[in-house]
Design a protein that fits this description.
The protein is α/β, with parallel strands linked by helices. The protein folds into 2 domains: about 1-310, Rossmann fold; about 315-355, no CATH class. It contains 16 helices and 11 strands. The strands form 2 sheets. Strands 4-3-5-6-11-10 form a 6-stranded mixed β-sheet, sandwiched between helices. Strand 8 (about 215-220), helix 12 and strand 9 form a beta-alpha-beta unit. It is globular. About 50% of the residues are buried. Mean pLDDT is about 90; it is low at about 365-374.
């Protein structure tokens, strides 16, 4: 598919569904990693149109959702301090911590501001030299280059009152952790196109070879996802395990070299705890020692904050793909987008929010568990 107006063509949609029905001869379980892809699949009902036995498992690709609870608590603690201007993208303000969220801090008089770029936060710091300005640097590899550039710009221009609270996570280690899990059911992956636009897909090739699992770099339009699913099922049926690129209009194998260079200069790989999942080695980014002066955790001495998840939230199982939102007893009752218990109900990329906005209810039929061939 070459032209943008093709991605909503119903004729192509029927053609792809027909090909999928003609290709799939047995049950297959495919995980879309990206939360944006999850929302498209659920909103358009694509997951309900697939042939019997072909099942989509919704993965942990929502950066808001996997930000650990203790990081939210650190953000709330820093934002509550006098003299601090705490800046963030808007989707982080309602993510619940142990004792409230950033929106609550703002309601109590804290200076919490929504920005649309980390460079906006650097400008806020330059305009307010007598105050500490913190940017909440959250996300996968997609947002890391812009955050790296903000740190570089602050360092180069001498904006010493700017720091970042970093909670960057990396996709390939998460895929490996899912495949190593004893309850894993995933047999193929749709990789997030925007992550690969930055990083390329060379990191996925050893995973595909080692685990014999197809990985298809996929876009975000409905027909992108349908074509990605067809490509994954075709590989599974043929016994292949390769990295293929559906999103050729935006992604190259080696990614974006300047963006990757900025990330490598500012950050170093570290272990990260994923909300609801737990620690995954080498699955995150932290500021390199050269930029430690811009590290908000060190500047405000909040490194040792510990937190406990709400006992009624099954976000971990949802993010690992072992449960659906409709399996949660709190879904749609005690946990709603207005009053969320966990991050997957807050974020515009969260699986629980996707199900809720699409009108999926606990009383409605949900896909049955498919016995996965080994």
């Amino acid at each position: 598919m070459k032209y943008l107006d093709e991605y909503r063509d119903p004729v192509l949609a029927r053609r792809l569904l027909a090909e999928l029905n003609g290709t799939a001869t047995r049950p297959w379980a495919i995980m879309e990693v990206c939360g944006g892809q999850t929302h498209t699949l659920v909103r358009q009902g694509i997951d309900e149109l697939l042939p019997a036995g072909v099942r989509m498992i919704h993965g942990p690709g929502c950066p808001v959702c996997v930000t650990p609870l203790e990081i939210i608590d650190k953000a709330v603690a820093i934002a509550s301090r006098p003299g601090v201007i705490f800046t963030s993208y808007g989707d982080m303000l309602r993510v619940p911590g142990t004792h409230g969220d950033l929106l609550g801090v703002k309601a109590r008089g804290g200076d919490v501001r929504v920005v649309y770029s980390p460079l906006d936060a650097v400008r806020v710091a330059a305009d307010n030299p007598g105050r500490e300005v913190v940017f909440f640097a959250v996300g996968f590899e997609t947002t890391a280059p812009a955050n790296a550039m903000a740190v570089l710009h602050a360092a180069d221009t001498g904006v010493a009152n700017f720091s970042v609270l970093v909670s960057h996570v990396l996709v390939p280690p998460a895929i490996t952790a899912i495949l190593d899990a004893p309850d894993n059911q995933v047999q193929a992956f749709l990789a997030a196109g925007h992550v690969c636009a930055v990083m390329g897909w060379t990191e996925y090739e050893p995973i595909a070879a080692r685990y014999r699992v197809p990985i298809v770099v996929t876009g975000f339009e409905p027909l992108d996802l349908l074509e990605g699913i067809v490509m994954a099922v075709r590989q599974l049926e043929e016994g292949r395990a390769e990295v293929e690129n559906q999103y050729a209009r935006a992604v190259k194998r080696t990614g974006n070299a300047p963006a990757r260079d900025a990330v490598r200069r500012v950050f170093q790989v570290t272990g990260r705890t994923w909300r609801g999942i737990g620690p995954i080695p080498a699955s995150g980014l932290a500021l390199a020692p050269e930029f430690a002066g811009h590290d908000a955790e060190r500047r405000f001495a909040v490194e040792d904050v510990r937190a406990t998840e709400h006992p009624d939230c099954i976000a971990g199982a949802i993010l690992r793909g072992t449960a659906l939102p409709t399996d949660c007893a709190a879904y749609g009752t005690r946990c709603t987008p207005r009053r969320p218990l966990g991050a997957p109900m807050v974020s515009t990329e969260g699986t629980c929010a996707a199900f809720h906005h699409a009108g999926r209810r606990r009383s409605a039929p949900t896909p049955s568990t498919v016995e996965v061939p080994r």
